[in-house]
Amino acid sequence: MSKICFTEEQLVELRKNPYVKNVSEKAITYTDECKQLFSNEYRNGKLPSVILREMGFDPRVLGEKRVKSLTRRVKKYEARLDEFKDLRKGNTGRPQTKDLTPEEKIARLEHQVKYLQQENEFLKKINFVDKEAQWKFKQNQKKNLKSSDK
Questions:
Q1: Highest mean pLDDT range out of 34-43, 44-53, 66-75, 119-128?
Q2: 3-state secondary structure of 42
Q3: What is the pLDDT of residues 45-62, one digit of tens each?
Q4: Using CA atoms, how far apart are residues 150 and 144, in angstroms rounded to an integer?
Q5: Tell me, what DSSP letter sits at residue 20?
C-alpha cells in the first residue's frame, strides 16, 4: 500500500465516486465495473491518468503508485477466468468443515484416507530403499576388508 494517506476532504470526495466500493485513509477498493471500464479504455490506448480523470478521479490525489498498481492489477485480472470478480470472500484458504452434507463429509474423509494410504506406501518405499542402501554399504565394506586382508 502507498504511504500517502487520504485527507478527510479527499475521503469524502472519493466516497461520492460511483466507481469506489470502499475507501479508507490508506486504501481504496474499486468496483468491478470500474476495473472493467479501465481495462477496456486501457486496451483502446488511453493512458491510465486520462482514464481515471474521465471516471472522476484525480490521479494526483491517488498518487503514482496507486495508479500503477491499479494498471498492473487490471492486467492481471484480464488473464483470470473470473476476470474482475472479487474472489476473496469465498476463498479464505482454509477448507470449510462447517455446513457440509453427510455425503460431502464422507467424500472428504475418503479422500483423506486415500491420501494417507499413499503417504504410508511412499514412506514404506523410502524405508526399504534406505535399508537396501545400508545393506549394500555393509557388503561393500566387507569386500573391502577381505581384499585388504589379502
A1: 119-128
A2: helix
A3: 999 999 999 999 988 888
A4: 10
A5: E
Pair 62, 71: CB distance under 8 Å: no
What pLDDT score was predicted for residue 1? 45
C-alpha dihedral sign at 41, 47, 49, 50: negative
Quick check: pTM over 0.85? Answer: no
Grid coordinates of 113: 484416507
Residue 66 structural domain: 8-79
Among 33-47, 90-104, 107-121, 136-150, the range of highest mean pLDDT: 107-121
User: Angle formed by the axes of helices 32-43 and 64-79, to 10°?
Assistant: 90
Query: Which residues have CB under 8 Å from 29's CB, separation 6+?
Result: 20, 21, 22, 23
Alpha-carbon gap, residue 49 to 67, rounded angstroms? 7
Report residue 80 as a C-alpha cell: 483470470
Residue 52 lies in a domain: yes
Clarify whether residues 105 and 141 are in a common domain: yes
> Does any domain span residue 149?
yes
**Contact in structure between 2 and 65 (CB atoms under 8 Å):** yes
Domain boundary among 17, 50, 79: 79
